[in-house]
Amino acid sequence: MSLLYKAQTRFLFHAHIKIKIPVFYDDSVFDYLFGILETVDKKYNSYQPDSYIDRINKNADHFVSVDDVTIRLLRQTISWSDFFEGSFDITVMPLIRLWGFYKTDGIRKVPEKADIEKTKKIVNYKNIEIEDHSVRISSGQEIITGSFLKAYAVDCMVEAMRNMGINDAIVNAGGSTIYAINNETHPFWNINVRDTEENQLLYTLHLANKCYTTSSQQETFVDINGEHYGHILNPLSGYPSSNRHVGIVTDKCFDGDIISTGLFLQTRQGFEEKIGQLQKRMSIDGFITDKTGERFATPGFSTYHA
């Protein structure tokens, strides 16, 4: 039986987000679903003026009143930072700026080691203080939400879709966060996974009621003397990760986005150790491609592709 769908794409969270649903739904459904994403973007995106996170950043060293969602998001990201022993840290923004991201003059250079060491002292998620409904970060600190907020918004939207009775759909948020909703008539969506540097097809995943999340440096980097330096920085070293690609399958996009970032900052041995620990507490499988192009995948990842 041929299934018919319709789709809309809008630009949010610095990404093109595409929603595909069965053709019999009214177009007003798109407005409702994208509205959920827009609300999350407006309230919590660190790049949005007067969002809760923006207020925290602009009032560093002072407590700022926030809502329950902000508290929950920060507590969860802090917990993940503990798990990754500080290699994942949402206060990494000063290091990102030091490396020349967001500069407008086009002049960039590899930071001096002394400057990296100085900036590393500012980056510390443990300095995020939460008291009742107020949050304070230390002077000079800055929270960045890019590693989790888009994925959290997709989770919120997927929950709304299920509450509406939508049981056959797919959401592609910038290619890095993809959630598939499936039923018995349409048991899975095919997701093509390509090598981020050579653009070769690695896998065709059969994704069903799961999220596929990927982290790579291919599209977001600074070019310094002809060499690419990616935006995923290790707060412990102060330098970008040298890995090429991480892809994982999880139940929740929020967890997947954070985990893929955290795993991207690991060695292959660290990847195996961390994902092994995670598999004891949640459903997760995936792969890592290191700087040489060598790829390692968990045994269970093969169940998602032919």
UniProtKB/TrEMBL annotation:
The keyword tRNA-binding does not apply. Its cofactor is Mg(2+). Its EC number is 2.7.1.180. Keywords: FAD, Flavoprotein, Magnesium, Metal-binding, Transferase. It is an enzyme of class 2 (transferase). Pfam families: ApbE (PF02424). It catalyses: L-threonyl-[protein] + FAD = FMN-L-threonyl-[protein] + AMP + H(+). GO terms for molecular function: transferase activity. InterPro entries: ApbE, ApbE-like_sf. Belongs to the ApbE family. This is FAD:protein FMN transferase. It comes from Segatella cerevisiae.
